[in-house]
């Protein structure tokens, strides 16, 4: 008996970095999802080499989901609307973007406590301090990976507004203060049962 894979949906993993299965959010871990990796750095061998501000090689309304983990903050502020509009353009009508990035409000609390350069948590790349969360991981930047520098940042309100301004029909942003992250899910079309009037 031959088992046939039933891949039916595509997730565009933007800013994917080096390939590791655990970098893909668990939401996309089933066999129904096919990952297409996008990164600006050819050294990480993505499927598509490009900036997230130019997804022109991806057709309109052709992907089911976008997974964006800690890369929008690497853009300059004026590039953010361009990238989010590209996300919106390539998603199907019933598609969505799942996004996580640093929560500047949570980080600011540590800065107010004068813990700017003290490790807040340990990552696979080493200790991460508020300074790294705001400006980019210093160790990576020092080793020549200038793509790791941060050029903008968000609060829950500004992230939600940016996604709505990009044309998403429904956006939900949550804060994970323990990890100093924001999480957003942005739907092209509001899911059934969602009241968008309020």
Number of helices: 5
CATH topology of the domain at 9-102 and 153-187: Rossmann fold
The CATH class of the domain at 9-102 and 153-187 is identified as: Alpha Beta
Number of strands: 9
Can you tell me the CATH architecture of the domain at 9-102 and 153-187?
3-Layer(aba) Sandwich
Shape: globular
Strand content is: 25-35%
> How much is the radius of gyration in Å?
17 Å
Biggest sheet, spatial arrangement of strands: 3-2-1-4-5-9-8
Question: Given the helix and strand composition, which structural class is it?
Answer: alpha/beta
Write the layout of secondary structure elements.
Blueprint: E1 9-14, E2 33-39, E3 48-49, E4 63-69, H1 80-90, E5 91-102, H2 104-112, E6 121-123, E7 126-128, H3 130-135, H4 138-142, H5 156-165, E8 170-176, E9 181-187
Parallel strand pairs: 1-2, 1-4, 2-3, 4-5
Antiparallel strand pairs: 5-9, 6-7, 8-9
Question: Can you characterise this structure?
Answer:
- Pfam families: Methyltransf_11 (PF08241).
- Keywords: Methyltransferase, Transferase.
- This is Methyltransferase family protein.
- Residues 48-99 form the Methyltransferase type domain.
- InterPro entries: Methyltransf_11 (IPR013216), SAM-dependent_MTases_sf (IPR029063).
- The structure is a single chain.
- With 198 residues, this protein is of the alpha/beta class.
- The chain has a domain at 9-102 and 153-187: Vaccinia Virus protein VP39 (Rossmann fold).
- 21% of the residues lie in helices and 27% in strands.
- The protein has a seven-stranded mixed sheet. A two-stranded antiparallel ribbon has the order 6-7.
- It is globular.
């Amino acid at each position: 008996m031959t088992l046939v894979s039933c891949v039916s949906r595509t997730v565009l993993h933007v800013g994917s970095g080096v390939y590791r299965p655990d970098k893909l959010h668990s939401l996309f871990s089933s066999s129904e999802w096919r990952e297409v990796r996008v990164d600006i750095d050819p050294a990480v061998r993505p499927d598509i080499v490009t900036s997230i501000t130019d997804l022109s090689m991806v057709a309109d309304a052709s992907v089911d989901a976008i997974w964006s983990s800690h890369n929008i903050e690497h853009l300059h502020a004026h590039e953010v609307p361009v990238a989010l509009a590209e996300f919106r353009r390539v998603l199907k009508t019933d598609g969505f973007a799942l996004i996580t990035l640093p929560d500047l409000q949570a980080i600011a609390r540590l800065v107010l406590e004068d813990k700017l350069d003290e490790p807040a948590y340990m990552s696979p790349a080493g200790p991460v301090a508020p300074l790294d969360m705001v400006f980019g991981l210093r160790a990576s930047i020092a080793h020549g990976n200038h793509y790791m520098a941060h050029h903008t940042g968000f609060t829950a309100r500004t992230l939600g507004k940016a996604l709505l301004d990009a044309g998403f029909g429904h956006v939900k942003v949550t804060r994970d203060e323990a990890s100093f992250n924001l999480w957003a899910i942005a739907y092209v079309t509001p899911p059934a049962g969602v009241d968008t009037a309020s």
